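Sat 14:20. Reprocessing the chain from the morning session after the first attempt stalled halfway. Input below, unchanged.
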Amino acid sequence: MNERMSANCFGAISPIQKIALYETRSRFYLLGSNNSQTRCRVLKIDRMEPKELNITEDNILYSKDQIKDLVNTIDGGNRIKTGPRSTGSGICKVVSAFGIVGFVRFLEGYYIILITKRTRIAVIGYHSIYKIEDTAMIYIPNDGIRHYHPDESRYVKMFQNIYLSSNFYFSYSYDISNTLQCNMTPVTNDALRELMSGDQSFVFKNVPNERFIWNSYLMKDAKRIMNSEWIIDVVHGFVGQSNLSIYGRSIYITVIARRSNKYAGTRFLKRGANFLGDVANEVETEQIVHDSKLSSLELGCFSSFVQMRGSIPTHWSQSITNIKPKPVISIDIPDPFAITAGNHFNNLFMRYGAPVIILNLVKKREKKKQESLLSEEYMNSVRYLNQFLPPEHHIQYTSFDMARKNKSIGANVMGWLDDIAYNAVCKTGIFTSNEVNGKIGPYQELLGNLGQPGGGLFGKGRLQCGVVRVNCVDCLDRTNTAQFALGRSALGLQLCALGALDRPKLDFDTDCVRLLESLYEDHGDTLALQYGGSQLVHRIKTYRKTSPWTSQGNDIMQTVSRYCRNTFSDTEKQRTMNIFLGLFVPKDGEPQIWDLASDNYLHHPDTLGKGISLRCPLTKWWSDEVMNALPRPLYAVNKPILEISCARIGDERVDCFYDYYRPYELHNLDDTFAYKITHSVRDFMPHFTTIYSPFVIRGRPGKHRDDATKNPMKNPSLTGSSSTSSTTSSTSSSFESDSEGDPSGEFEFMENGSNKVVVAFKSLFPSMEEVYGTCIKKPAPRDVALYEQYVKPRGPVTFAVESSVVEPVKVQVSDESLQIYESYVSMKSKLDISVDLNSIKTYQCFVRNLLGDA
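Finished this time. Tokens:
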């Protein structure tokens, strides 16, 4: 989300960042608050409805005292009365949370899914990005009206196999579903511009990119009822950040990978694309570089580069019915007019602009055609589509048989990739939020001409127009290495644009490149686990031919692990994903998901006659509005806004500084995010070095990140533990922890029934009188008046100054002496000095003799 769009338009910060769930017999009460607990809202969820989701909200803003009174009133009204006295509690707290993931229903009633533990994983300026560490899945209907179904528990267990504690991310103030360039692009709607040109201040929200939001289905029913302040968008993929220290100047390098929810699935079960052009394993990777000394998006220096990966956009598959290490590749549906590929590339033009550069890493020559079938189909599709495009917007196709080149003796695969990557990045450009700060030199003109003008909030920077699309067969090992090469080339240009580097070339075996390599290794491991079931098999060091011989055993183990998971567990994983994304909705009396022979119709709605759109001419496979916007992406020409409302200056909804630093909380500096982030000096620079530049080639290997820190913030999460640890209404101790602060204990509104020990500020810091025996008091009025007279500059003295110094002795001066002094002073002021001719001759003779002696 934009931090600020213009002088009177601000990006919205979600004010509900703490939640407490209370329950009575008939209702759940969700109490949402901002961090300072000065602004609260209430959601009421009916528990007497067995199968429907009944949510009500009064749209009233409460103070903390009003919420406390409301809870106590509900508690008193729901106590069980037996005789003259009431016994038991009418309302009880279930769990504290940080946000709502959504609501889901299988064959019985609805469940609510809450975020109970989070970790700050990255910062973009003042905006924090959090990783979900744990969630709670709580059944809503009361047990007394519950309609039990024998298959409900199986669906619950299947749903919990989606590990929400593994690589799901969200932010309260930053739109993580869109790129930094999109978030910082000003509104182009004329009506909104005219509205924002007045004196009134506004707060707005961008339209999120639904392609990368994974809880859209879970929030579908609630969005129509709930205020937008309750809604957070959850993105699946990878987020990693490191601190590159350049002689003490901290440059934050962030890698964000957004995995598409369209045609999502596992490795062998999702190949190619559907008829809408959505490809399997589509991931948008963004590399953000910013100078941390100035965090404001408006004034700071920010740069980004976006690339993507995805399966080849045609209808192909690999059968796993027969147990083979490499299943046979087959083209299922011929597409001579490249309709599927046309839909795919039209979407890329809309999102990224032109040019679209393809880097195809699939094999071209084989004894028995397998991968080469895909290369031929891909190249033919691109050749056909380019016939109808203007030459300046042609899809640029580059093929590089990476596996074959790597087998050659003495082959320099990374060298070839670097040349391809550098040329590709120079064609698409990079995004910069402000004017290029590069040093004067041969690369100054290059930096000033990258991309298109008009980047940043005020149009002073440059826009990235176009995207590099990388693929191999699986879009895992080879693809990740190629994306690292692209990221390395882009990083050199980004550092030059920030003025931190004088040439856009980064050498291997430097602290900077090792730090970037570590980020992309984690990036590749995470995506490989999500799609392929194991970590990377062939890493960057494999293609550099610098990996130790012991790594071959690890490669074999990863290959076996990937094969076993793909063969025996991918089907169950695919079913789980279909339920999580809402592609399959369980219904009583109909076949259940485990009874289906295939999920093909779920991802291809056209097969059942659903979602068929009007066909365009085969020679016009693009949209007019997209073509008119090229080479810029569509949002750069016509950017919509989801909602806009009035705001006042100083409102917490627009104060990013207040939201980031939280001056009302007490923090230990060692626990702050800046100390925990991976650091180039602490984690990569060798010991006992005298050269502190991160751009110097190291003759010996430096520290390894895992060995340098005891508790590194390593991402990905490779644990397979379930995150939805509760399916009942009971409180669990696992909900009471957070890496930044526990919401429970701060968000308590009941006056009774609490035995918690509260640590007060007074107990931590005793008074001055207790420690030193004195205290600071207000000075007396007479002392204040005296001080005011003292500090007045050049003020007239209004009181006599008493002095104990002995008066000086008066000296008598004669009239003759006074006349001599007065004539001297008057002569000096008038410069009336007369010198006779004899004196001048005498002086000239003196000077002549002096020079003659010399």
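The radius of gyration is 35 Å.
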